[in-house]
Design a protein that fits this description.
heterodimer, A: mainly alpha, 11 helices, disordered C terminus, B: 205 residues, alpha+beta, 5 helices, 9 strands, 41% helix, elongated
Chain lengths: 235, 205
C-alpha cells in the first residue's frame, strides 16, 4: 500500500514536471544543451516558489530573435534572479502577476527600492499596472526616482488602473511626437492631478497623503477626459 | 391403450441393467468425498483467481493508477499554472459562458477583479500580407498561437484577446517570418536580448 502511494505521488510529480517543461520542448530554436539548462533553471525557480513562466516567455522571445543558446541561458538566469529580487521587494504576499510585473520593471531599469515604494502605497492589492507604468516611464527615459515619485503620488491620490494606463499612453504619444519624456510626464500628470483633486473633493476626501482603495471605474473611455472636469487642484 | 407385446430389445436392456454388481459402500463414500473435495477446490478457485489472473489484475490496477496519477498531475499543475498566470484562455472561456451556467455565484474581491484579463484589440494594416500573427509575452511569443483575421477586403488585420493587466511587449509576425512592430504604439528595447518590441499597458476599466 505504501509503495502504491509512493508510486502515485511520484507519478503526479513527474506529470506536473513534464507539463511544466512542455513549453520548452515545443519551441524550435533551442538546441539540446540549451533546452536542458533552461529546464534546470525553470525547475529551480519553481522549486523556490517563484512563477517560472517569465523565464520561459523570455527564452522563447530570445529564440524568436535567433539569439544563440548561451545567450538564451544567461537571459533566463537573469530573469530568474530578478524574480527573486522582485518577490523580496514586493513582500509580504505578492501575487504571481506582481512578481512578474516587478521582474519586468527591474529589467527596464527600475530599482528594488522603487518596487518597495509602490508596494508600501498599495500593500494589499495587485500592483502590476503601476509597476507597468513605472517600467514604461523609465524605459522612455524618465529618471527612476522621478518616475517612482510621480507614480506613487498618483496612487496615494487614488488614481485607478485605467487612469494610470491613460497617463502612460498619453506620455507615449507625446514622446512619439517628439516631446521629452520627462516634460510630457509633468504635463500629463497635471491634468490627472486636476481630475483626482476634483474626485477627492466630490467624495469628501480631504487628505491626499493617505493610501486609498479606489473602486473600479466602469465609465469606460479615457478617465482623464471622460470624467467631469473639476477645479484644478492647487499644488 | 397399452400394447401388451413388449419390445424384446427393451427387455434385454432392462435385464442387463438389473445384473449390475452390487456397489461397495466404501468405494461410493470415497468417490463422493473426492467429488465434494473437488467441488470445494473449484469454489475456492473461483473466489481467488489463479496466479496468472492475479498478475493481470495487478497490472491493470497499476495501469489505471498510473493513468489516474498522470491525469491528476496534469490537472493540478494546469490549475496551478492557470491560477498563477491568470490564464487568458480560462478567462475567455469564463467570459463566454453565461453566468447562470457557472453554478453558484461567489464573491470576487477587488484584487481578483483587478487581476482579471482584459479583452484587448490589436490591429495592423498590411495589404501585402498573406498571414499575420500576433506574438507577445502574453502568448509566449508563439507565432501559431494568435493568428489575426483580415477585415473584409481591407488591409486591416485584427484580433482581440484577453490580456492580463500590466505592461506587455509584443509584435506582429507577417507571413511567418517578418517581425513587425505596431506603428500605432510605442516601442521599447528589451535590455536582456537587445531586441525592440511594441509596448502596451493594460489596465482593468
Amino acid at each position: 500500500m505504501t509503495r502504491t502511494l509512493m508510486l502515485f505521488v511520484a507519478l503526479i510529480t513527474s506529470a506536473g514536471r513534464l507539463q511544466a517543461q512542455q513549453p520548452l520542448a515545443s519551441v524550435p530554436g533551442f538546441d539540446e544543451q540549451t533546452r536542458v539548462e533552461l529546464e534546470q533553471i525553470v525547475e529551480r525557480t519553481a522549486t523556490r516558489g517563484l512563477p517560472p513562466q517569465p523565464i520561459v516567455v523570455k527564452a522563447r522571445f530570445a529564440a524568436l530573435m535567433h539569439a544563440p543558446g548561451p545567450k538564451i541561458v544567461s537571459v533566463a538566469r537573469a530573469v530568474a534572479d530578478r524574480l527573486e529580487v522582485a518577490r523580496t521587494a514586493l513582500a509580504p504576499q505578492p501575487t504571481a502577476g506582481d512578481i512578474k510585473a516587478g521582474e519586468d520593471a527591474l529589467s527596464a531599469g527600475v530599482t528594488p527600492d522603487a518596487l518597495r515604494l509602490v508596494r508600501a502605497v498599495r500593500p494589499d492589492r495587485p500592483v502590476a499596472v503601476p509597476l507597468g507604468l513605472l517600467a514604461q516611464l523609465v524605459a522612455t527615459g524618465v529618471p527612476v526616482a522621478r518616475a517612482s515619485k510621480i507614480v506613487t503620488d498618483l496612487m496615494r491620490k487614488g488614481a485607478d488602473s485605467q487612469q494610470l494606463v491613460a497617463l502612460g499612453n498619453d506620455v507615449n504619444s507625446d514622446v512619439a511626437l517628439g516631446e521629452r519624456a520627462e516634460a510630457a510626464l509633468d504635463l500629463r500628470t497635471q491634468a490627472l492631478d486636476a481630475v483626482l483633486g476634483s474626485s477627492a473633493a466630490g467624495a469628501g476626501l480631504v487628505s491626499t497623503n493617505t493610501p486609498s482603495a479606489p473602486g473600479v471605474d466602469m465609465s469606460g473611455g479615457n478617465p482623464v477626459t471622460s470624467r467631469p472636469a473639476g477645479r484644478p487642484r492647487r499644488p | 391403450m397399452i400394447d401388451d407385446k413388449r419390445d424384446p430389445v427393451l427387455d434385454a436392456v432392462v435385464s442387463e441393467l438389473r445384473r449390475t454388481d452390487a456397489v461397495n459402500p466404501a468405494v461410493v463414500s470415497r468417490v463422493v468425498r473426492a467429488a465434494v473435495d473437488a467441488r470445494d477446490e473449484d469454489w475456492r478457485d473461483d473466489l481467488a483467481p489463479a496466479p496468472r489472473f492475479a498478475n493481470r489484475w495487478r497490472l491493470a490496477a497499476v495501469v489505471l493508477l498510473s493513468t489516474a496519477a498522470g491525469v491528476a498531475g496534469f490537472m493540478l499543475r494546469g490549475a496551478a499554472a492557470s491560477r498563477a498566470q491568470g490564464s487568458a484562455a480560462a478567462v475567455a472561456t469564463a467570459a463566454a459562458v453565461p453566468r447562470e451556467a457557472n453554478g453558484p455565484m461567489t464573491a470576487v474581491s477587488a484584487s481578483d477583479l483587478e487581476s482579471m484579463a482584459v479583452p484587448t484589440q490589436f490591429v495592423l494594416e498590411s495589404r501585402a500580407a498573406h498571414r499575420v500573427a500576433l506574438v507577445g509575452d502574453f502568448n509566449g511569443w508563439n507565432p501559431s498561437q494568435t493568428p489575426m483575421a483580415r477585415h473584409d477586403g481591407s488591409g486591416l488585420w485584427a484580433t482581440t484577446i484577453p490580456v492580463a493587466p500590466g505592461r506587455h511587449l509584443y509584435a506582429f509576425m507577417i507571413d511567418d517570418s517578418l517581425f513587425t512592430l505596431d506603428p500605432r504604439k510605442p516601442a521599447a528595447k528589451d535590455r536582456d536580448i537587445g531586441a525592440t518590441a511594441s509596448v502596451i499597458i493594460v489596465g482593468r476599466p
